[in-house]
Design goal:
The chain is of the alpha+beta class. The chain has five helices and 24 strands. Strands 1, 2, 3, 4, 5, 6, 7, 8, 9, 10, 11, 12, 13 and 14 form a 14-stranded mixed beta sheet that branches. Strands 15-18-19 form a three-stranded antiparallel beta sheet, with no helix packed on it. The chain has a three-stranded mixed beta sheet with strand order 21-24-23, covered by helices on one side. Helix 2 runs parallel beside helix 3. The chain is globular and about 70 Å long. Pfam families: FecR, FecR_C. One of its GO terms (molecular function) is sigma factor antagonist activity. Keywords: Membrane, Transmembrane, Transmembrane helix.
């Protein structure tokens, strides 16, 4: 990292931390929403996913299990430095081949996807049980809560333990921004992509907040999945356990019970139905469960999971898919499995996979 770039990151980090401290006493929800929106915009600018003229846009596959989803109230706040937040986030480019953890001082650490990454209660970072960095501070008091960021590129996945003991499974193509150590009043992280999180019950009286560019999840202690890829206009919330209240962007409230799913389009409620919630979180065990998903959606998931380009013919995108795919196998074998049940053929050239309509003899 160039000295000037690192200096800019440190400066933006410090200014962001000052804002986060002020938030404890005076921040409004509208201002906070704006800040996280800017973070989301900057993350999105750093993505470079190939787009082909003859590809059909794919939509989000279901997310899995939430406790309480809500949209923020509109209030005013004059002291937010949203430009500072933009600069802070834009300093983090998405690596192409490795997982990267960025500390509060701007230090970038390459992390193996099989590594154990955890934060101690005091905010110290441990990788494979070895202390990598003590709790960092801008040096102005114990109430500061410096933010870290973990970036998981296409084709990679990792587990992360937060300082409160909550466990995250982070899917490919995902960024998570979080404090080294949580505040006493609430716990808050930002997600761009997909995570499954098991929130610790040790601090069940302290709200846990997950922010995305489209909605916010407020939790008191449960397990849930958040899927919020910005390129997907559709989203789904599936409850595994507990109780969920979803407020869409039209300010309408919807309650979810276990094994129920709510579908949203651009943040607006469209449907609610009964499902097997475990099917929607099987990805954390390397299994992709298909329940009538369109082939285009399945191929987009495989593109993200393996980090490989997949190009398919028009006319096959709506083919319904059923069954289970073992993601622990290579992409070629997974695609070959699809070709057994669907009328398609698979071709690989220069590390790009092509899915063609099977020709009649």
């Amino acid at each position: 990292m160039m000295k000037e770039e690192k200096g800019n990151i440190e400066q933006m980090s410090e200014r962001l931390f000052h804002y986060l401290r002020k938030r404890e006493s005076s921040a409004s929800q509208e201002a906070e929403d704006e800040v996280w929106s800017k973070i989301s915009e900057q993350i999105d600018k750093k993505k470079h996913i190939p787009v082909y003229r003859w590809l059909i846009p794919v939509t989000a596959v279901a997310a899995a299990s939430l406790l309480f989803v809500f949209w923020l109230n509109n209030q005013a706040y004059d002291t937010i430095h949203s430009a500072d937040v933009q600069e802070f986030v834009s300093a983090a480019n998405t690596p192409e081949k490795h997982i990267e953890l960025i500390t509060a001082t701007g230090t970038k650490i390459k992390v193996d996807e099989k590594a154990t990454v955890a934060y101690a209660q005091d905010g110290s970072l441990l990788i494979d049980e070895k202390k990598i960095a003590p709790r960092q501070s801008t040096g102005e008091g114990e109430e500061e809560h410096p933010m870290n960021q973990i970036i998981v590129p296409m084709g990679k996945h990792i587990k992360l333990q937060l300082s409160d003991g909550s466990q995250l499974d982070i899917n490919s193509g995902t960024k998570v921004v979080y404090p080294q150590k949580f505040k006493k009043e609430y716990r808050e992280i930002f997600v761009e992509g997909e995570i499954f999180i098991d929130v610790t019950h040790k601090e069940s009286n302290i709200p846990f907040i997950v922010k995305t560019s489209l909605f916010t999840v407020n939790v008191l202690g449960t397990a849930f999945n958040v899927k919020a890829y910005k390129e997907d206009t559709k989203a789904e919330v599936v409850l595994v356990r507990g109780k969920v209240e979803v407020k869409d962007k039209k300010e309408q409230n919807y309650t979810l019970m276990p094994n129920e799913l709510i579908a949203l389009n651009e943040g607006t409620y469209t449907d609610k139905k009964k499902v097997n919630a475990l099917d929607y979180i099987s990805w954390i065990d390397g299994i992709l469960t298909l329940n009538n998903q369109a082939l285009s959606i399945v191929l987009e998931q495989l593109h993200r999971y393996y980090g490989k380009e997949i190009i398919y013919d028009t006319g096959i995108e709506t083919m319904p898919m059923h069954g289970k795919l073992d993601l622990n196998e290579g992409l070629q074998k997974v695609l070959s499995t699809i070709a057994i049940t669907a009328p398609v053929t698979i071709e690989e050239k220069n590390n790009i996979y092509y899915v063609h309509m099977r020709k009649e003899n």
